[in-house]
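Example 3.2
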Amino acid sequence: MTEATPQRRAAGNRSPTPTIPLAERLRPQSLGEVIGQQHLLGDGMPLRIAFESGQPHSCILWGPPGVGKTTIARLMASSFDAHFITISAVLGGVKEIREAVEQASVWRGTTGDFGTVNGKRTIVFVDEVHRFNKSQQDAFLPHVESGLFTFIGATTENPSFEVNSALLSRAAVYVLQPLSEDDLRQIVAVALERRALSAIESIAKEAVDRLVAYADGDGRRLLNTLESLGVAAGNDKSGGSITEVTDAWLMKVLGERMRRYDKGGEVFYDTISALHKAVRGSDPDAALYWLIRMLDGGAEPKYMARRLIRMASEDIGLADPRALRLALDAAEVFERLGSPEGELALAECVIYLAVAPKSNAVYKAFNAARALVRKDGTRPVPLHLRNAPTKLMKELDYGKDYRYAHDEADGFAAGENYFPEGMATPVFYEPVSRGLEIRIADKLNELKARNHHQNL
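Structure, written as tokens:
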């Protein structure tokens, strides 16, 4: 479809605005309707087997927002014909846990197996389980252990760090992945097929591409944006209702949300390139400008943190080793605080990287060493550098004549060779005359002189 003037329907023929959110209206009602997560739900895959077995088990669904964690939990309850209790760890606490236990106890009844009454089970679903503290998580343990209910937790954080080991040992962990672009396109197609977007009948390919890029693997974000489009289409001021969404109209009504570039698009990479070059060029103001442009444009802050760590290694290196530590600290601070508070740590890091002394000596040394290894043969390790943990290895002269540097003057075995025998000694690392590398260069020159003197 082209981006011509949008087709319109008479204003009097608008669809009524639904009261139930689009994400809820389109929530899958069966396993066959689930889009994505086929590594878990496909034929012969772990969760598919669990569904087909008819025997629910406690589990933790770990994955980013909008990938189907709640949907899978609800489908489990439906598939196993179980009572379904939802607890939000954001809003709930021990009181809600006790109420869930009481309900499960009532439904269990006085006869029959634990967790059942008239053949029914109870599933307790805890959303954002990582937000519960240790004592709150511990409150589930005896009831999971006794089989009073099946526990299903959903989390966006690594369960290894955020879920108690005792609870973790009683639950299988399933890792959900961000929805692929094809998955997101399927969601758009389903919404259109079910006429769920008010007056909208079609969406141009360019607009779908932009929506998919903006959703960034998050199905809920995509559906919420589609719902906004449906409302905007039904209330368009220029006469009638929009029936076809073009890219131009999409940017007109949701431009602030869509921002000025798509993640993964050319402008995105142009902008990260500008940030990197501003840091490398020691311009803190420009570096901060491009950082804010990217954050304002919807770039994932965790991605930005990774790029800053790379800049610290590539463009500063040993000229200021503190830069790498500060970049790692900034990433950790963002993990702890989230947005927007954690973004200040990223800004602090960008400014530090920009004003730090620059050196690409480590970067160049790494590339040179890798290039040599790739083209050179696989040379054997010299005997004197090999470890000799067994008697046989010692008899074969492993480790023979090795000079233990700590036993040498100044902790340096002058004249010792650590390269394979017969190999011309390459020089990969050449410090620059900036920052700490000035002192590193002096040290290396001193050691080279001592090696030369020893070999005379």
